[in-house]
Every structure is written in structure tokens, then in C-alpha cells.
């Protein structure tokens, strides 16, 4: 086999892959379900002959690769131009910015200190520059300004000379942060860590970040959180989340209430899309997966709904009993109570005797 795919020919011919596959089906028949075109020399030559009169690309070149396509990196640059070295390429023939992540090369230059898929589905990407403080020049400036300028970010993973297209990304909020990372000689310097979020991509193809604990689903001992207020960290979609004394004391009191019922509050670490996620509590006997919020206000309730449904789905896929539950210091307004219960989520709120469970 020649190893030529519709993706390779799309770059070579400047042609949409759909047209190439339609020609192949018409000429050679449909492929069996679950298989993909890998053309021999005769088939590849027939495609080239069929579209030999096609003018490669129009004056405005278009992106032709599809999610999951694997091609040689040089084929992309042969088609579109752009810098052939480094992780960021800005071809002048297309508005798209090519962004390449590679564990094998990144680890040699300190790029792997923060780079990787995050718990919230975003991707932390280290800017370019192997020595000295990274600056907002060339590729770094292009990524920083990409949302404002309307330039799609095309993210690839790299293995050897081959790259695999993950999908289209854009910058999140905030678009970047500054962190101390090592240079190529191991010396500390200031690095730019971009916050990329998917527009249309396969995030499960990305490696998890080094600060994300990777393991199988795991149940462990739960202990009450410290009541002191502190900053939990940044979330791409929510900004900074500050968990107050109210939320922590709520969790601690609820944990005690659970024990008094003869049940056991536990920690539950889950794996989803290459990242570790963890609800506030897992009650092993009842299967309650609990997300606590310090307020019954709409914004907190909406966030809790999304989180607890996601936790429960991942837990069920692992074969565990999973009953989503939201823990609040008081009842939200009636229509939010109705929404929670309609979704099959248990609502747990304080009352004079401890807690009451609505379902």
C-alpha cells in the first residue's frame, strides 16, 4: 500500500476530501463499515488523473483536513506555507494558525511543565521561545490575538514526522497566563501558557496535563474540608472560583449527618476525556454523587446541575451506582427546585434537624 489517504491528496490537490471520497466510492465501491481509505498506487493515480484539470485551491485557499487526519507535517507546509520549525506556524495563504503539541519534543525544552488537557476540557499550551522570557512576538502574538482577528487555531499532536489533526480551537477566558517554566538548559524563566478551548475537536486525543492525576476510578477516604476561605484556581468558563467558609462548613456538617445515618462519605476520583474530575462527596451506600454550593442563587444552581450530571454519567459508565445530588444551604426559588427534580437530581438542603432530601 502507498499510505496515501484522502487527507494527503486533499493537501496535494487543494481539494475537499468529500469530493475525493465520492470519486473513490463511485470508482471502487463503498468501504466496509468501520474502515477507511488507504489507497494503493493505482487508486492514488486515478484520483490525481481525475482531478488533474482542477486548479489547486482557489485564490483564497481553504482548510481541507478533517478531525483525526494524520499526515506528514511537511505536506501541510507544502500546501499552505508557514514556518516549518517550532510549534506555531502562521501561513500567509490562509487565516488559520497551525499549533502543534508534542510530548516528545516539548519535554526537551520545558514546554511540558504545564502543557496538557485540563479538567474543564480546555488545553494549556506553552508559547514558543526556548531561552529567556517568552514574549508576545510572532506566533505567540498571533495566538493571543487570534480570537479578535478571527483566525482559527488548528491544533495537532505530533509523533515523529507525522502530525494528527485534533480540531479547531480558540482562546478561552483568560486567553493566557504567565508561569515559571524551565528553558532548554533547565534554567527558570517566564513562560506563556495559553488557554485553548475546543470549537470542534477530539479532546480525547490530547494528553492530560502533568498536574492532572491520571489513574483508574478510585474511591478513598473523605475528610471535612478546611473552613478557611482560599482560592481553588481558575476555570476557563467560570473565572476564579472562591469557596467560602459557608460551602466548606456545609460539606463538613453534611458529612457528619451522613455518618449519623450509618453511611460513609467518601472521595471519588473519576477519569473523563484524559482528565481527572472529582465531586465534593460520594456516599457509597446510597450512590449519592454530591456537588455542594455556597448559595442557592441561579448561577450556582446551574453550575451544580452541569457538574453533577457529568460526574454521575462518568461514574455510571464505570459500573458504579451513581445518583446525582446537589447540596445547598437553603432552598432555591421554586422553579429551580422543579428543574432539579425534573432532571432526576436529588436536592439536599439544611433544615432545623440537619438536612432534608428532596427527590
Molecular structure report:
- The model is unreliable at 229-243 (pLDDT under 50).
- It is elongated and about 80 Å long.
- The chain has helices at residues 6-13, 17-28, 41-50, 73-80, 103-106, 138-144, 146-149, 245-260, 298-317, 334-342, and strands at 70-72, 88-89, 97-101, 116-117, 123-126, 153-159, 162-182, 188-201, 218-221, 230-235, 239-243, 265-272, 275-277, 281-283, 288-292, 323-328, 346-351, 354-358.
- The longest helix is centred in the C-terminal third of the chain and has 20 residues, at 298-317.
- The protein contains ten helices and 18 strands.
- The chain starts with 5 loop residues before the first helix and ends with a strand.
- The strands form three sheets. Strands 1, 2, 3, 4, 5, 6, 7 and 8 form an eight-stranded mixed beta sheet that branches. Strands 9, 12, 13, 14, 15, 16, 17 and 18 form an eight-stranded mixed beta sheet that branches. Strands 10-11 form a two-stranded antiparallel ribbon.
- 32% of the residues are buried.
- It is 27% helix and 30% strand.
- A hairpin with a 3-residue loop joins strand 10 and strand 11.
- It has 359 residues and is α+β, with helices and mostly antiparallel strands.
Set out the fold topology.
Elements: H1 6-13, H2 17-28, H3 41-50, E1 70-72, H4 73-80, E2 88-89, E3 97-101, H5 103-106, E4 116-117, E5 123-126, H6 138-144, H7 146-149, E6 153-159, E7 162-182, E8 188-201, E9 218-221, E10 230-235, E11 239-243, H8 245-260, E12 265-272, E13 275-277, E14 281-283, E15 288-292, H9 298-317, E16 323-328, H10 334-342, E17 346-351, E18 354-358
Amino acid at each position: 500500500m502507498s499510505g496515501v489517504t484522502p487527507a494527503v491528496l486533499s493537501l496535494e490537490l487543494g481539494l475537499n476530501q468529500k469530493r475525493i471520497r465520492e470519486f473513490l466510492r463511485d470508482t471502487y465501491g463503498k468501504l466496509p463499515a468501520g474502515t477507511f481509505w488507504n489507497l494503493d498506487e493505482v487508486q492514488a493515480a486515478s484520483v490525481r488523473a481525475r482531478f488533474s484539470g482542477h486548479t489547486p485551491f482557489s485564490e483564497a485557499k481553504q482548510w481541507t483536513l478533517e478531525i483525526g487526519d494524520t499526515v506528514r507535517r511537511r505536506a501541510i507546509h507544502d500546501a499552505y506555507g508557514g514556518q516549518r520549525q517550532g510549534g506555531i506556524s502562521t501561513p500567509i495563504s490562509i487565516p488559520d494558525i497551525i499549533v502543534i503539541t508534542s510530548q516528545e519534543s516539548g519535554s526537551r525544552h520545558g514546554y511540558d511543565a504545564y502543557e496538557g488537557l485540563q479538567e474543564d476540557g480546555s488545553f494549556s499550551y506553552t508559547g514558543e521561545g526556548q531561552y529567556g522570557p517568552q514574549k508576545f512576538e510572532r506566533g505567540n502574538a498571533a495566538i493571543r490575538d487570534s480570537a479578535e482577528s478571527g483566525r482559527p487555531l488548528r491544533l495537532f499532536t505530533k509523533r515523529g514526522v507525522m502530525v494528527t489533526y485534533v480540531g479547531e480551537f480558540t482562546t478561552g477566558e483568560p486567553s493566557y497566563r504567565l508561569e515559571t517554566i524551565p528553558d532548554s538548559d533547565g534554567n527558570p524563566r517566564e513562560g506563556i501558557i495559553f488557554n485553548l478551548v475546543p470549537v470542534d475537536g477530539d479532546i480525547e486525543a490530547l494528553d492530560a496535563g502533568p498536574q492532572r492525576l491520571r489513574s483508574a476510578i478510585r474511591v478513598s477516604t473523605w475528610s471535612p474540608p478546611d473552613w478557611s476561605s482560599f482560592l481553588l484556581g481558575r476555570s476557563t468558563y467560570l473565572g476564579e472560583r472562591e469557596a467560602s467558609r459557608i460551602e466548606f462548613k456545609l460539606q463538613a456538617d453534611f458529612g457528619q449527618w451522613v455518618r449519623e445515618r450509618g453511611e460513609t462519605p467518601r472521595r471519588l476520583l473519576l477519569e473523563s476525556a484524559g482528565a481527572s474530575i472529582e465531586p465534593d462527596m460520594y456516599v457509597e451506600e446510597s450512590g449519592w454523587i454530591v456537588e455542594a454550593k455556597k448559595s442557592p442563587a441561579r448561577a450556582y444552581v446551574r453550575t451544580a446541575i452541569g457538574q453533577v450530571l457529568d460526574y454521575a454519567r462518568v461514574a455510571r459508565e464505570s459500573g458504579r451506582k451513581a445518583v446525582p445530588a446537589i447540596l445547598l444551604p437553603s432552598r432555591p426559588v421554586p422553579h429551580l427546585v422543579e428543574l432539579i427534580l425534573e432532571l432526576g437530581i436529588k436536592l439536599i438542603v439544611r433544615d432545623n434537624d440537619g438536612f432534608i432530601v428532596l427527590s
